[in-house]
Structures are given as C-alpha cells and as structure tokens.
Amino acid sequence: MSYSVGQVAGFAAVTVRTLHHYDDIGLLVPGGRSHAGHRRYNDADLDRLQQILFYRELGFPLDEVAALLDDPAADPRAHLRRQHELLTARIEKLERMAAAVEQAMEARSMGINLTPEEKFEVFGDFDPDQYEEEVQERWGGTDAYRQSKERTASYTKEDWQRVQDEADELTRRFVALLDAGEPAGSEAAMDAAEDHRQGIARNHYDCGYEMHTCLGEMYVSDERFTRNIDTAREGLAAYMRDAILANAARHTP
C-alpha cells in the first residue's frame, strides 16, 4: 500500500514542503511514483520518517540524522534504544527546567503580580516593584515580610484595588483632620491611626503597636516616605506619625 505526499504530511503533521525537501536532499526518498510522476510513500518510508522526526525533535541537524539512519552497523532496535536514552535524558532535563520555572512562578506570585497597565490603574505613577530589592534586603528575613508575601500571593487586581482604595480613604481622613486643625493626639486622629494599623494587619501582616510606631517613625525618617505621603498634604507624614504614636500610647499600659 502506498500513500500520497499529502496523506503522509497529514499523518506526520508536517508540511508537504518539508517532505519535498527531505526528498531533494536524499533524507527520505519515496519508494515509488505514480504514473503521473507524483511521490508515493510505502510503510518503510513511513517508518523512516518516524525516525527522522524523532531525531529532529531531539534537536539533531538533518545531516546527522541522515548519517545515523544510513549507518549500516545500526539496526532498528539500536535506533530505538538510542532514542529511548535520548528521550529519557531530555525528559529529565525538562523536568528540572519545569521545577525551576515553578519556583520562579511561585516567587513571582508572592509579590505584586500585575501587568504594567493594571499597576498603573491601581497605583498610578507609583510602582511597588521598584523597591522590592530594598524591601527584601531590609525586611526579607522578618515574619512581617513572610506574612505579607503569603497573604498577598493570591491577590488579584481587584484585591489590590480594594487595598489601595482603603489607603486613599484613610489619607483623605487624615488630610481632613489636619486641615480642620484637629490635634494628632485627638480621639479622631487616633481612631484614624488605629484604622490604619488594622488595615495593615488585615491586608498585609500582623501589625502590633510597636511595629506601627516603627512605621510611623519611618514616615518622617525616610525622605522618600515623607515625600510620597506629603504629596497629599504638606506635613501629613509628621501628622500621621504623631497620631500613630499617640494611638499606641493610648493602647499600651
């Protein structure tokens, strides 16, 4: 029984052009021709094509494939053994690669994994990934960092939007209090500070009063935090720090 070039291309999931090329270079010469001169492939040709495709899948160049298949000392079983060994080695390599990719995916999923467009929608001009290296260096070994990574690992764009909306609302509260001349030690300011602490604990990591006061101090000691917070209102970073300290004192015996 013989098959046309189109049929063989369909069987092997290759193009007719590929089969023509294999014929032209002598790698796979069809066993027969039709009366009209068209290529006709027999079962032996199909077996050889299978061997060719095996080796090609393994990355062998065509000239090496030809040399292997035309080796008079090799028999079909030898080819199968060689291919089995090569495929086994490739499987092991791919498994190692898959494991490495999984680790990379896991590491990536532990952070803010949004597209640039989504980041802009949620955070505006601020890119939270910009400081990731510094964050890991300063806090990578802490329980707070670990908790935050674990807790936010599955956050979607909608989750991050909710977190950002909560933060924006708190900022508006603090600004309104500052504009109204409300002292940082007032009940309203301390309540806002407490809501700030609870939001961190709810969305990121366990944030006790000692941890919260450390954050408040950082708001004024690190000019980048101060500059970012004060974009909403001049003096807001210091006001928030004072409210956080007052709130901690209120809850600490």
TrEMBL record:
PROSITE patterns xrefs: HTH_MERR_2 (PS50937)
Keyword Transcription: yes
Pfam families, per the entry: MerR_1 (PF13411), TipAS (PF07739)
SUPFAM superfamilies per the UniProt record, alphabetical: Antibiotic binding domain of TipA-like multidrug resistance regulators (SSF89082), Putative DNA-binding domain (SSF46955)
Coiled coil regions, renumbered to chain: 77-104
Location of the HTH merR-type domain: 1-71
Keywords of this entry: Activator, Coiled coil, DNA-binding, Transcription, Transcription regulation
Keyword Glycoprotein: no
InterPro entries (UniProt xref): DNA-bd_dom_put_sf, MerR-type_HTH_dom, MerR_fam, TipA-like_antibiotic-bd, TipAS_dom
Protein name: MerR family transcriptional regulator
Species this protein is from: Streptomyces olivaceus
